Amino acid sequence: MSANLIRTALLPGHIKLRLESEDKWGIIQELLTVLEETYGLSDRKAAEKAVCDREKRMSTGLEHGIAIPHGKTDTVDRLIVAMGLKPEGVEFDSADGEPARIILI
Fold it and tell me: What is the model's pTM?
């Protein structure tokens, strides 16, 4: 996913500056709520299943405090993105073992 593509899809209203959940599954739910509120997901359950199934197969925790949980579903017709910040970090099974502080879904 290119930076330009993310920049185009990620708008100011799609950013949650202070994620509240203490684990990656709660974080995913919070960010799905942002997507639901900003894009009006037609089928949240399908989106949740796509993201959670993907995360269960292989963690999307990268390095340097970044995680990108994602999924693909036919109920969404274009790239949609939300971002959340968790300054204290949350365990995301990251490649470098560091907690994720910036999460994009």
Answer: 0.89
What are residue 101's phi and psi, to 5 degrees? -115, -25
Closest Cα partner for 38 from 85, 84, 92?
84
8 Å CB contact between 89 and 101: yes
CA–CA separation, 64 and 19 (whole Å): 18
Pair 68, 9: CB distance under 8 Å: no
**β-bridge mates for residue 61, sequence order:** 67
Cα distances from 71 to residues 42, 51, 54, 104, in angstroms, run: 15, 4, 6, 12
Query: Which tokens hold the place of 60?
Result: 């999307």
CB–CB of 53/47 below 8 Å? no
**Running along the chain, 105 residues long, what does each successive block of 10 average in pLDDT?**
70 91 97 92 93 95 96 88 96 95 96
